Amino acid sequence: MPGESGGDEQSSTMVDGVYSSLLLAIVEARLSAGTPLSQNKLAARMGVSRTPVREALLRLERDGLVQRLPEAGFAVATITIDEVNEACDLLHVLDTYVYQRAADTLSTAELDEPPELAASPVDIADSRDAEPR
């Protein structure tokens, strides 16, 4: 029905907003590892019902950023040294891929140009992908 999809879109947008807010707070370390996350308090602070908060927390749990605690709700996930090492290994693989792709696709003249100091290899690759060919 026409009225139902509008409600679903609004609910989805609300969940996305709560998810984005919590994600940013975790990434910026405003919510540190181990911090308990009360659905009621988050809902009140964000001016939404508990449903979008719960759905956002479940998404963050799937992303590995929060943990569900038995009979205690959710908390910001902790990270182990093994997970840090794994992330560093992944970044190394991604860097290698980006550099290899740049070397395969850039002309000799482009490779001879001094790089922009503020641009990362990923930014350069992204900007090349966005340019019409």
TrEMBL record:
Superkingdom, natural source: Bacteria
PANTHER family the record matches: GLUCONATE OPERON TRANSCRIPTIONAL REPRESSOR (PTHR43537:SF24), TRANSCRIPTIONAL REGULATOR, GNTR FAMILY (PTHR43537)
Cited CDD domains: WHTH_GntR (cd07377)
Cited InterPro entries: Tscrpt_reg_HTH_GntR, WH-like_DNA-bd_sf, WH_DNA-bd_sf
Gene Ontology molecular function: any one: DNA binding
Descriptive protein name: Transcriptional regulator, GntR family
Domain HTH gntR-type, first and last residues per copy: 12-79
UniProt KW keywords: DNA-binding, Transcription, Transcription regulation
Cited SUPFAM superfamilies: Winged helix' DNA-binding domain (SSF46785)
Spans annotated as Disordered: 109-133
